[in-house]
Amino acid sequence: MRLISSVKGRVLIGFGLIVVILGASLVGSALMVRDYRATVNEMETNSRVASMVQDTRSDGGNAALMLQRYAISGDETLVADIRESAASAVAKIQQAALVESASSNPSQAITLAQVAIAAGPLAESADNVIALRQSGRIAEAEAALEPIVPQFRQFRIVLGQVADAKLAEVSARSADAHRVGNQALALIIITGATGLTVALAAGYVVTHSITRPLIALEATARRIGEGDLDTRAEPRGPRELRSLGATINDMASRLQLRESDLVLANNELRERNRQLLEARVQAATDGLTALPNHRCFHERIREAITAAEGAGDRVSAIMLDIDHFKRVNDALGHLVGDQILRACGDILSATTGADNVYRYGGDEFALILEHTSIDEATEIAEELRNAVVQRSPYLRGITISLGVAEYPAIANSAEELIYRADAAMYAAKSAGKNRTCRWDRMIEPSSSPAPEPRRSAPVR
Asked: Residue 182, SS3?
């Protein structure tokens, strides 16, 4: 009571409360910065795992599709690509499982470890199919391929679920970081307001000798509470007030440092989010033609099939390949080949719209036509073929072969639709190239071969 009844005691008590409040603010800010950094590290780990899982799905999908194509065509040039894609998928899922094992989510770590263990037998099954096909046992190779398909589909489903879960965790951690930043700002404002209130209460009971320095300290506390962390208290007045001013200055300096850390961390988070978004866009775009790539094609066709299944609608797919493209590369060089690929992409986009055209890989392109029957898709395929024929003299005399299939009349799933359109395309090439073939008429191509266009340079 004696301390409270004295001016000095009340001043000490009042400003002691300010020090406690500012100290609590510093402790709270430090804890928030620690939580923020931990959240950012966890988000980076989840992003890495999600990226590796998505790469595994892509590489596994490439290997499976090329394996189906190899089992049918026996094209030995596909063997190295199949094994490379399968090995890449196994390596990436093992790496993802290793990274996830150090995370705080044991269930997903166990799932990835199980998938990584299952990836090896799938790769060995693919090698078995290749060995059977190379030995001429075509029927056995196709029979060995059948049980792999459901295993691979389940493999991709699990990977998709893990990737979605990881991306959801990235979003959740981003929201947590944003929330921590808002809480830190609220803490600074509340601390400043509380300190100001205590300073004003103490000012009513102090003598005239300490009123002016006390008002100055009050103004300093107000500016700090409003966010002006550059302000500092002047060292004047009684010893106790000078000491308090030095404490406020020290607290303001520490708050300023913490605020700088928060701003820097927020900027880093925004930059990482921007880089992640750019990486996802680049991962879905072919660098040469600027068209959506193989991965984007598979995602889009699955979405289209799902939508068509729910609405009772149709989806058609066109697979096309540039005829004799290897000769062009061998004779004129890869730079000319790249120019031809870009020009073909431009022709396809101009004819059907860029949203429908995909660079499937190598010299192969693909189109997804929603709400389109196989008859309509065949007409569009002919338009594409004729458009390339018209430009052929300017494209070193190249032509294209196309295959058409439709869901659900011909195919029951996205994978089957791709497979049958691709098979129809190979039938068109086998029948003489520069023509369109639809799956349901593979013995009778839907168009006659066009006259061989004049070539601007000889192709050997």
From this structure: helix
